[in-house]
Amino acid sequence: MRVSQFFLSTLKEAPAEAELISHKLMLRAGLIKRLGSGLYTWMPLGLRVLRKIEHIIREEMNRSGALELMMPAIQPAELWQETGRWEVFGPQMLKIQDRHQHDYCFGPTHEEVIADIARREIKSYRQLPLNFYQIQTKFRDEIRPRFGVMRAREFMMKDAYSFHVDLASLEQTYQRMHDTYSRIFSRIGLNFRAVAADTGAMGGSSSHEFHVLAESGEDAIAFCPTSDYAANIELATTMPRGNTRLEPSGAMQKIATPDQKSCPEVAEFLGVPLEQTLKTLAVTANDQFYLLLLRGDHQLNETKVRKIPFLANFELASAEQIIAEIACPPGYLGPVTAKAKIVADKAVLEMSNFVCGANEAGYHLTQVNFGRNLPVPELVFDIRNVVAGDLSPDGKGILEICRGIEVGHIFQLRTKYAEKMQATYLDESGQTKVMEMGCYGIGVSRIVAAAIEQNHDAQGIIFPLSIAPFQLSIIPINYHKSDMIRSEADKLYQACLETGIDVLLDDREERPGVMFADQELIGIPHRLVIGERGLKEGLVEYRGRRDEAPRMLPLKESIAFITQQLAGY
Amino acid sequence: MRVSQFFLSTLKEAPAEAELISHKLMLRAGLIKRLGSGLYTWMPLGLRVLRKIEHIIREEMNRSGALELMMPAIQPAELWQETGRWEVFGPQMLKIQDRHQHDYCFGPTHEEVIADIARREIKSYRQLPLNFYQIQTKFRDEIRPRFGVMRAREFMMKDAYSFHVDLASLEQTYQRMHDTYSRIFSRIGLNFRAVAADTGAMGGSSSHEFHVLAESGEDAIAFCPTSDYAANIELATTMPRGNTRLEPSGAMQKIATPDQKSCPEVAEFLGVPLEQTLKTLAVTANDQFYLLLLRGDHQLNETKVRKIPFLANFELASAEQIIAEIACPPGYLGPVTAKAKIVADKAVLEMSNFVCGANEAGYHLTQVNFGRNLPVPELVFDIRNVVAGDLSPDGKGILEICRGIEVGHIFQLRTKYAEKMQATYLDESGQTKVMEMGCYGIGVSRIVAAAIEQNHDAQGIIFPLSIAPFQLSIIPINYHKSDMIRSEADKLYQACLETGIDVLLDDREERPGVMFADQELIGIPHRLVIGERGLKEGLVEYRGRRDEAPRMLPLKESIAFITQQLAGY
Q: What is the ipTM of this complex?
């Protein structure tokens, strides 16, 4: 492609509304243009990237045996009413009425539609398993769309849905999708991690998220660098260190801590490590009052608390409730002397000589010890997020925490949808059985942003070769002034096309600096510069997007050199 | 692809709601499944056809120099309010409110969005011309969706929009799109015709429709078989034959024609040719009463009437108005003795000795002649549709009428949208000018139905090779019982794949009749049958989908033979 026949539209500065680096760079490079809140046009340059990602996904999905189809974006309400999700899905679902006042939605996902197809089309166990997928525009009415295509309202998604006679077959396809996703993200060239995840609102049993690792990621992931273990920190199980409590080092004391309410404040005020403080949280559940105990540097994990049967519907206690129960304002609570049910996190049991609230405004207790100043808690659970330094749940190392951008999610839905929609088949003995179901999503457009979050520098985007809008940029100096330059540049360009190199020839009448800046901003991985001085010696200048400096190559060998670079990137 | 790993789902009978043959066959072949009114899922088999059409369109659009982008499906109301189309477009446009009660629509077309991009991105004449296109899901809320994907609500469209400094540039791109569309429909293998068309609600000047010729087509097209001329019958100009009126053959007579009101009734009652009768239509415009005269076998063309300035807002007169003006009920009107303004179609001037209403209930006049019984009309216009047998407007032959399915439409929009949205550029002298604009649509999903309307027989679909879901079907007899058959079929299948033949191997445990019927129904152009008897002599049976009878081929030569067929189809 010649730039003169293409549409480049780069910006020096990103619009003020962009916060995330990928959002800024996508706008500056002209990959996307904003149409409205959470709505973006994919400009020709950006669409080339998106299509390359689509192509990789399609190839790998086909290789896995999945069959591509295309369901309507607009879905009748009736199907969603069958599963009860018409009401449950909430305002993220864009609801629509047609001219006859019939209810529809712009599909945020397609479990209902595909289950409807399955129940009408699949009669016998002989037809199973089946795995259908589509690559399609979806819409989710985010309350606050932001970060460009990272959290847009209209976006491109690959969604797949599999149907099975039993769990064993579902597990087999689930594993195949796990492998397929790994191949897809590897081929794209992303640093990613498959992470055990909560099944959340989608229901079902097993679930994995695929995260592109990047500091700006919204999700915190606990992983073990010495094993395969990775999980969303909300889901990762904490492991007791197994440390026994130390002997009391001195008598418990009540110390004035005026206006020091949080653990970090108290720790600093008293000059003790934060891990030496105890966090006491007051909650209520079923009209019962509880104090939850955590080490001062740990965070409560609400999901874990809700899995404790008697705390399933817990709420944080109000200041009024706390004063009524403990006669003490929040900030000075502690388990000693409190007449409340105590629920302790497992890590608390290993604490000794710790600091906690005195249940008296402006005072804390120090040198507190279980068994001496208060009973050892009986209700002990895992109710916190893991932190870096925790033992890995697989026992194979020490956890680290990183941040990730979710680009894929696979679920074993089991029979949740199939049962409600009566998606059944006849088994070998002629009996009617409910199908097992899996679903598998990839945020196609989001991958572009995630890849940029992971691959950029001060000059702009550094696209992985597999999804770069062009593989090679040819920049001739004085293309419009020098016949020799123009002729050689055109020849090289033509030779690239014939070799199958995806090449962009910058034939604009622009200063070299502008052309270099554009090539770097839009992230073309390889660059050849044709200048008069080099050409006289038969040389061109090559620079890889990540290279420290350019180097000179014989013009005659440049195609072979680039071909080698493309193969071995 | 092996049928066992694919998803075939054919039906013996089409669902009752399908009227059109393409709709019936698409449902029977399992290309599509209905989700709701005007909403269809493209099943894996149908999607293969759609994707092949998409691929041809994309290749040819790229070859023409157009640049692919992708605009959002959801569009903010504000843009449509700028052009006034938010109100004008009518209930075909699906309007939507998001969670913040902001107005949007599911884009039925994208003139506003692209003009918004153009006005923000195009600054200088140096950037022009530009032609952007997308292949995208559109939605039009048809009042009565029918005929399957032919008139669906959600459908796939290729829409392109070009921008220019002047009309000459627009005309150049318009011609290039005309040529590109011809190449696209030719490559797909359709019998089509480019037809001059009315610009209608889209506005602008020149416009052509591309029609696939088929008896079931909704549009009537006048064409000249001895020249290039073709036009929608609403647009085709009628040409006077140039016949002079005959001398009166007898005196005018008033004849009782009880209950004979329409021209055909009167012609039959009196035993005269329909062409000998005169049709008199009463209309009003601007409080003035008119009688429009047409030959009895001709049809009024309202579009043409509205182009006559004083009839621009005409309406058919009510029975009350007619009685008030002529003192005669409808059905017996005529120009003789009527005190009304007369507007005659050009063909009427060539009539003599004709029959018309007597302006008296139950009576008609015969042997009526201009110049004798009434004055020669002064207001003479072309106000009828052309009919077969008319002279071609290009003077190069006699018109015929055929029916067509519109699959493409190109428009010179000129500055209609650009002016309202202030899409301007700076010309060479630094002056601000409004861009000229063209738009170019193809109904991608509709092409599948149109191709089937044009290519089918009693057994089912006969897909053109270029868009067939598979090029070749291999049907082994007793695949599951005979090791020899299975081994040879597998070998042949593998060899096809390696040669790049898009092949479907029917490895089901089905009766041969079922497999043959499926291959014919889904319209695979070529078929090889492997049976034991033939195999013993090293032969396989070949049959082209349109062949009268099968023939035997040496198995060894079958790949070469098929390759030849694919190249020369």
A: 0.88
